Amino acid sequence: MASKSDKNENRQQKESVRESAKEISKAKAQEPQKEMTFATVLKSQIYKDRNVLYALEPPTGFLHRTAQKNDLIVELAPILMGSAVNCLFVFGNPGTGKTGLTLDLMNQLKEEAKKQGVELISAYVNCSENRTEPAILLALMSQLDISREYPRMGWTKAKTIAEFSMLLNKIKNNVLIILDEIDYVLKESGDDILYRLSRINNDVDSKVSTILISNDIRVADYLKPRTQSTIGRVKVIFSPYASDELADILRERSRFAFKQDTVADAVISKIAEIEAQRDGDARKALELLDSCAKIAIAKKRSKITLDLVDEADQMLERDHTLNTISTLTEHQKLTYLSILQYEGTIISGTDVFKHYRELCESYNIKPLSERRCRTIVINLTELGLVDSEVGWLEDARKKARKIIINLDDALRNKAIKLIRDSLKEY
Question: Hey, what CATH class is 38-56+242-324 in?
Answer without folding.
Answer: mainly alpha
